[in-house]
Design brief:
Structural class: alpha/beta
Number of helices: 13
Largest sheet: 6 strands, mixed
Strand order of the largest sheet: 1-6-5-2-4-3
Helix content: 40-55%
Amino acid sequence: MKPLKKMLELSRQFRVDKGKGFRLKDFDPADTGGLKAGFKNEAQTLLQQGVEQLATLQDKLYAQDRWSLLLIFQAMDAAGKDGTIKHVMSGVNPQGVQVYSFKQPSSEELDHDYLWRCIRCLPERGRIGIFNRSYYEEALVVKVHSEAILATEKLPDELISKRIWKERYEDMSALELHLARNGTKVCKFFLHVSKEEQKRRFLARLEEPAKNWKFSPADVKERQCWDDYQDAYEEAIRATAKKHAPWYVVPADHKWFTRLVVSAAVIDVMLEMNLDYPKLAPGMRELLQRSKDELESEP
């Protein structure tokens, strides 16, 4: 099997584009798609080939200037979002990629609806936009800590009801449908790490001085809400997984496999765009030939 075909088929195992019946427990965080541990070196080769393929596709995306691509990354802490983005996008032209990381909302952002801060960062035509966390936080961390957080969002009391989460899923799905209808492909990744692997990575951050900066005591506190977060992710994916805006539930216990799946998924989505370099307008080829002749005739 050709390497690219192998990668694409691998990523499709983890694609969810119909939310009905989705269960998070059906996806194993330690899954390697049937690949053995010894495949790790070959995976690095495949990833490098994927990086090169992605660079070519991005060049066509930029030149064609018709489509844009939005990649959304969501995960529990220490699942590897930053590293995955770094490795998968390592070969693309920085001028064609925009990365935004969404933290706790600012006072300005709280004076707008919750989608506003993300909408203003959507990618332009011809570019790839990456959201490191996104508006989905409004149905994840806000839902898990709703009593503490909803009160800060300045919503009228009558709008905070039992329907608020369903309404937010509807809002997000409506936005993604609007984007799809206007030339922005949306691809969403949940990096699915196990609780045991998260603990191991937290301990590594504490034991290695060079990684201490990555750790916050709040990370341990959030682990106490692990089951609530798993439920929130499951419900969000079930409600918003669509053919035009699929989720990829990517096993994240093995970083090499996570990066391979994400790389393949991005390539797969971009291949759906049928990207190509712009066709020359009538008469332009003759004009280019004259320009070439002039340059070559210079003394």
